[in-house]
Design brief:
The chain has about 240 residues and is α/β, with parallel strands linked by helices. Helix content is about 40%, strand content about 25%. It has nine helices and ten strands. The protein has helices at about 40-50, 75-80, 95-105, 110-125, 140-155, 170-185, 200-205, 220-225, 230-240; strands at about 5-15, 15-25, 30-35, 55-60, 65, 80-85, 160-165, 190-195, 205-210, 215-220. The strands form two sheets. A six-stranded mixed β-sheet has the order 6-7-8-3-9-10, sandwiched between helices. Strand 1 and strand 2 (about 15-25) form a beta hairpin. Helix 4 packs across helix 5 and helix 5 (about 140-155) packs parallel to helix 6. It starts with a strand and ends with a helix. The model has no long low-confidence stretch (mean pLDDT about 90).
Amino acid sequence: MALLEVRSLKKNFGELNVLQNINIDISKGEVLAIIGPSGSGKSTLLRCLNLLVEPTSGTIVYNGQNILARKFDVPEYRQHVGMCFQRFNLFPFMTVLDNVSFAPRGLLHQKKEEAEEKAYNLLRKVGMESKASVYPGTLSGGQQQRVAIARTLAMNPEIILFDEPTSALDPELVGEVLNVMRDLAAEGMTMAVVTHEMQFAKDVADRAVFMDGGYIVEDSSPEEMFTAPKNERTKTFLSRILNK
């Protein structure tokens, strides 16, 4: 059974149809790359999966539970389905250590010592332990994103949704964030990644989907997607991206 099952998902903003009849499964341990042009609905799909945006219709099932049911415990669900954004959303008035340990203390009721020990370990994992006592404003974009990933991991998520995590970074900082994500993939973390980093999608993802106009136009292995796409729209998009 898939960890997340999406069926007939639609999202409208007024008369604008952003998602149209989305059907997709994400299995435990799978890395799913979501690619496509700007405005194709990629970020809205992730936000629907985390219920930051309420779908207009359709179903999303997590571990056999319909997350759109009226009395579903959304805050508890978000502890299992983490999200990393383009902008890092770190608390500027908290140190790096406090940013990572804050949610486990408040939501998981961990003791301060336990939460901070885990936070240090996670900061070490992403190469940021030396910055534990500083404030986010002193860090580069790549460093802030690595802290944001550590903060997400602190909640022990089953799946992490990455919404273009490198798009706000200077080019020379992209690699340090992608390396952390590669390590997570190698460890078996389930991830859905909206990305314009085609090499990452080719090398790391187990599956790739191409979105356009609110639809999933193509869903295949990265090898097939990048070497022999079936849909003409996919071919056009990839030829433009890969030949830049």
